[in-house]
């Protein structure tokens, strides 16, 4: 029996798919973060530092790292700053996890991953985690929450090298960060957006309207749809108490994956 060929999307169908995307969508954000200029502009806005500079060739969208037990975590965007500081930017629209502990876990993996044998604790690289959500899960009515370690008795801030910044698109406090979050939920940008966030506008319009970028985005969307199907399969297998080996076998057979790739999907799924 001949295998049925997958129908190719027409240009009109592709444009319709892309036109519905916003920056807060996973596939769109990944594509946006392929532009170092966009990431730099985003960090400058969030950190209120127009002089902030990143190392362009250090940008890694969808960076995967593992802990000592082999459990994987995938970072939305990772980049090094010029002043020996690392930045991890995450977008999380789902509300089915402990966001604060997720940030802690990711930060610990990044810290270990960036350390070399023989490093002194003074050598630990400063890290800033920026965690963007659709809803304000702190429920305090703010757009931005800066979190650092403090001495409870004196409220003195302790510089342990980690800064966590939580940003949501639910609350608009009139700040430039809130304006950026409003832009992150728009399907099309206008001249006013271009004036305020020129690099964001440039990358956004390229993805939306350049034929080559539209084709690449459709491939990303197909990849995300396949990944979602794989994750649903893993969830169902776990629900029915299947073992790790049984789940890996199911994934390799059903989705034609190697055991290594199946294990990677499994590890990423269980840490969500």
Keywords:
272 residues; 6-stranded mixed β-sheet; alpha/beta; 10 helices; 6 strands; globular
Give a quick precis of the structure.
By secondary structure, this protein is α/β, with parallel strands linked by helices.
Task: Outline the structure in words.
It is a single chain. This protein has 272 residues and is of the alpha/beta class. The chain has ten helices and six strands. Strands 1-2-3-4-6-5 form a six-stranded mixed β-sheet. The chain starts with 10 loop residues before the first helix and ends with a helix. Mean pLDDT is 87; it is low at 1-5.
How do the strands and helices of this protein lay out in sequence?
Elements (H helix, E strand, L loop, with lengths): L10 H9 L6 H7 L3 H11 L13 E7 L5 E9 L5 E7 L6 H15 L13 E7 L10 E4 L14 E7 L7 H8 L7 H6 L1 H12 L1 H29 L4 H12 L3 H12 L2
Parallel strand pairs: 3-4, 4-6
Antiparallel strand pairs: 1-2, 2-3, 5-6
Helix pairs in contact: 1-8, 2-8, 7-8, 8-9, 8-10, 9-10
């Amino acid at each position: 029996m001949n295998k049925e060929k997958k129908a190719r999307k027409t240009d009109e169908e592709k444009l319709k798919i892309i036109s519905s995307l916003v920056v807060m969508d996973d596939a769109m954000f990944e594509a946006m973060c392929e532009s170092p200029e966009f990431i730099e502009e985003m960090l400058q806005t969030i950190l209120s530092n127009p002089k902030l500079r990143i190392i362009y060739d250090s940008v890694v969208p969808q960076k995967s790292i593992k802990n000592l037990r082999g459990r994987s975590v995938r970072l939305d965007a990772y980049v090094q700053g010029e002043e020996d500081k690392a930045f991890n930017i995450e977008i999380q629209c789902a509300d089915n996890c402990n966001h604060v502990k997720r940030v802690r876990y990711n930060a610990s993996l990044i810290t270990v991953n960036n350390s070399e044998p023989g490093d002194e604790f003074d050598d630990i690289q400063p890290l800033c985690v920026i965690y963007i959500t659709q809803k304000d899960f702190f429920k305090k009515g703010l757009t931005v929450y800066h979190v650092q370690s403090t001495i409870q008795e004196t409220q003195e801030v302790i510089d342990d090298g980690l800064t966590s910044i939580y940003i949501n698109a639910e609350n608009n406090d009139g700040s430039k960060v809130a304006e950026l979050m409003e832009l992150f939920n728009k399907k099309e940008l206008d001249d006013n957006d271009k004036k305020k966030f020129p690099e964001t506008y440039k990358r956004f319009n390229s993805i939306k309207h350049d034929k080559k970028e539209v084709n690449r985005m459709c491939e990303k969307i197909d990849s995300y749809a396949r990944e979602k199907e794989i994750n649903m399969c893993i969830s169902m297998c776990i629900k029915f108490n299947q073992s790790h080996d049984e789940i890996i076998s199911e994934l390799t057979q059903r989705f034609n994956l190697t055991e290594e790739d199946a294990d990677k999907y499994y590890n990423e799924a269980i840490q969500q």
